[in-house]
Amino acid sequence: MKFHRCIALFTRHMYLYKRSIPRLLEVFYWPLLDLLVWGFITIYFAQFREKLPGFVTYFIGALILWDILFRSQQGISVSFLEDVWSRNLLNLFASPLNPAEYIFSLMVVSVAKLVIVATVMATLAWILYSFNIFLIGISLIPFILNLIVMGWAIGIMTTALILRFGQEAEVLAWAVGILFMPVSAVFYPVSVLPSFLRALARLVPASYVFEGMREVVAAGKFPLSDLLRSSGLNAAYILFALLFFNWIFKMVRQKGLLVKIGE
Amino acid sequence: MNGTVIEVNRLTKLFKSLRAVDDVSFKIYQGEILGLLGPNGAGKTTIIHMLLGLTTPTSGEIKIFGLNLKKDRKKIIQDVNFSSSYVSMPLSLTVKESLRVFARLYGVRDKEKRITELLKIFEIEGIKGRTVRQISSGHQTRLNLAKALINNPKVLFLDEPTASLDPDIADKTRSLLKSIKKDRNISILYTSHNMKEMEEMSDRIIFLHRGKIIAEGKPEELIRSFKRKNLEEVFLKVAREEKE
Description:
heterodimer; A: about 260 residues; mainly alpha; about 0% strand; B: about 240 residues; alpha/beta; Rossmann fold; 6-stranded mixed β-sheet; 4-stranded antiparallel β-sheet; 9 helices
């Protein structure tokens, strides 16, 4: 892995964010809209706070954390699509850049993007709803890292599928992340799910993150077992995603599909 | 002519039952421009993609600088570059920013000096601050060529490089490519549908038809062997025979 090539690709995306309105909307507009709509719903439901303590923290906190996962995934798959839309993919892969450097660079891009998104959302939540996400405590950090890694795994898998099935599959860049939402226990506990979805939720790292966050808020305890389960699953998924991408990359070179998506 | 730079042995590419490239062998020598000629679907672009490692051959061997492309692609590709009229630079970046990105990718030393040099050579200094999306297709082609030379390559693959240029700029580009080839002794693999351009540019031409080499030689030799007046007539004969 050569660092200068990763910097090159990272710089390419930072140049893009500097002047692309659609990409800036992704960073500011959608998170702001999410926060406004769901924030006001939260305020409305907050009148029942005696029955459900910590409701505001659950809801707005969950919203910000979900956005971290979603943006982390999009940081990979939409950045890849950016090169497809620009017809620039072949220029990149005809250079000494290898697939591992490409994926690593997109991971860094996704972190940069979600740092901005999370800062914007946390600041707005504080201004609009006097909600301070950092009150949840330092325990949030390892959970956030887990959400980022899960976002990467989904993003890498999605990118591999778009490489394989072409631009017609680009809708996956937005759809696949959302697919995990019902079984991630973002706004409700896993226990409300029917048994078959509960079993599925146990395989989703984000479900442990959101359950863990609720435990921190409700009981003030650090749920180590949730963190370990989430980390274990994520380690397996990210490894699988990288191997899957590598396999698909070889396959699209054999089938001549890399040049088709790149032109 | 100097030593062999590219050696292709029995290269074949199958896409399911279609033989896109069929048992093709050729060499490119140092400082030579080899033209790949043939109707659409003859296999020209597939050969370039295989030489860049973007498409994996079904069988056969590619050696560049004496190294096997399959094993040593990393080493080889550092001294190779390409330009295609079907591939673009990042649309939302400025001309200068996009060259900066590729200078970093190829690990070019003294990036800014090299970029300034290329902007001057291709006469695109005046648009260096404009985004790729905003510039004309002629300027985009020149930018692609500037990118192709960013790493001072020893081998250049040019897939229809003058396709969207007006006659004046196309002529300037050809002169420029010839002078670069002469000054730096680089080897160029060239494809174009402009037969006059192929005659003018190529030291040697390989004529492809349905993935196979059907003729090979200097432009004037090809014209003689097909008993035609020029390369365009040779091309038309082959292309029309295919339709019949």
